């Protein structure tokens, strides 16, 4: 008790400066998350209040079996979107950062800024831009197809390709964070490693594969995790580009949570779906840490 009192006397004043951030986190993040966890096991109504349900897992059963299979389809769509976008973002970011490394300091800085510029653009603006590009009547994508004599494609209204079109829009967007972080990680690798490999007869590709890629593995792990989380939580792009859902062909987990909670006002099932999303992200992140972790030091 004496140690706690002495600690507060010495350092307690410093917590005054972070109190607004802590209060914001508590009110708008921690309490809503905890409340959502409780609601996942209740039947909640804005009018009649909340009451516990029996069995307690009934909301989860409803989410998977009694919503016309939409939630299961949303999970599969989310996995499809995640696999392709994360793979593309990591690959493109790694390649672009590698191509930037031989350039001079000022050129590298220019390209880092140029590639990062889209990251400060609102996700809604990017989604609207791609919606115009994929417009079936006067979009730029169909304009290019007409130039080569091909018929127009219903990019965002055909259930068979709508999700692929949205995924393609994400793949074709430069992964700004990956480019900047990979470039910074590569810049910190000692040049002696490359010089020693060159003396041993390794060509540029071999030096890249056996030196660069292994030594940026900690950055690779970080980017894989954050891009996976972002892909699992995709909402704005889907909501802006295909607000109708195209016969549920573009439903993702978060859009389904939104529909269940704020359109159908079924908060208990929506909270159960959110808990399923949390467990999926936690499981995938744990697997990624297990597979990609390394003790790289240089």
Strand content: under 5%
> What is the H/E order?
HHEEHHHHHHHHHHHHH
Global morphology:
globular
C-alpha-based Rg, rounded = 24 Å
> Which structural class do you get from the secondary structure elements?
mainly alpha
Helix content: 55-70%
| Spatial strand order of the main sheet | 1-2
The chain-level mean pLDDT equals 88
Determine the oligomeric state from the structure.
single chain
Number of helices: 15
Could you give the count of β-strands?
Answer: 2
Residue windows where pLDDT falls under 50 for at least 5 positions: none
Largest sheet: 2 strands, antiparallel
Q: Summed up, what is this model?
A:
With 298 residues, the protein is an all-alpha fold.
Comma- or semicolon-separated keywords:
3% strand, mainly alpha, globular
Q: Would you write up a description of this structure?
A:
Helix content is about 70%, strand content about 5%. Helix 4 packs parallel to helix 8 (about 160-170) and helix 4 (about 70-100) packs across helix 14. The chain has about 300 residues and is mostly helical. The two termini are about 45 Å apart. The protein has helices spanning about 1-10, 15-40, 60-65, 70-100, 105-115, 125-135, 140-145, 160-170, 175-185, 190-200, 205-215, 215-230, 235-240, 255-265, 265-290; strands at about 40-45, 50.
């Amino acid at each position: 008790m004496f140690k706690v009192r002495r600690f507060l006397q010495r350092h307690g004043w410093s917590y005054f400066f972070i109190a607004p951030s802590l209060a914001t986190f508590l009110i708008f993040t921690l309490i809503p998350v905890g409340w959502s966890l409780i609601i996942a096991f209740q039947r909640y109504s804005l009018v009649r209040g909340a009451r516990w349900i029996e069995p307690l897992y009934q909301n989860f059963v409803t989410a998977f079996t009694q919503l016309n299979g939409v939630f299961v389809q949303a999970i599969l769509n989310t996995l499809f979107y995640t696999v392709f976008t994360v793979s593309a973002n990591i690959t493109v970011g790694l390649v672009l950062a590698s191509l930037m490394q031989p350039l001079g300091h000022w050129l590298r800085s220019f390209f880092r800024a140029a590639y990062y510029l889209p990251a400060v653009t609102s996700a809604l603006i990017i989604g609207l831009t791609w919606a115009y590009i994929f417009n079936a009547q006067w979009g730029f994508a169909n304009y290019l197809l007409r130039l080569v004599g091909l018929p127009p494609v219903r990019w965002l209204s055909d259930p068979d390709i709508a999700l692929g079109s949205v995924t393609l829009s994400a793949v074709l967007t430069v992964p700004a964070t990956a480019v900047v972080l990979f470039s910074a990680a590569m810049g910190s690798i000692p040049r002696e490693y490359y010089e020693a490999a060159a003396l041993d007869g390794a060509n540029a590709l071999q030096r890249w594969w056996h030196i660069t890629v292994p030594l940026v593995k900690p950055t690779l792990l970080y980017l894989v995790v954050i891009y996976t989380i972002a892909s699992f939580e995709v909402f704005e792009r889907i909501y802006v580009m295909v607000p109708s859902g195209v016969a549920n062909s573009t439903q993702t987990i978060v859009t389904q949570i939104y529909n269940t909670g704020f359109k159908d006002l079924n908060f208990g099932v929506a909270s159960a779906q959110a808990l399923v999303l949390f467990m999926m992200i936690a499981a995938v992140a744990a697997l990624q840490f297990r597979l990609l972790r390394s003790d790289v030091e240089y």
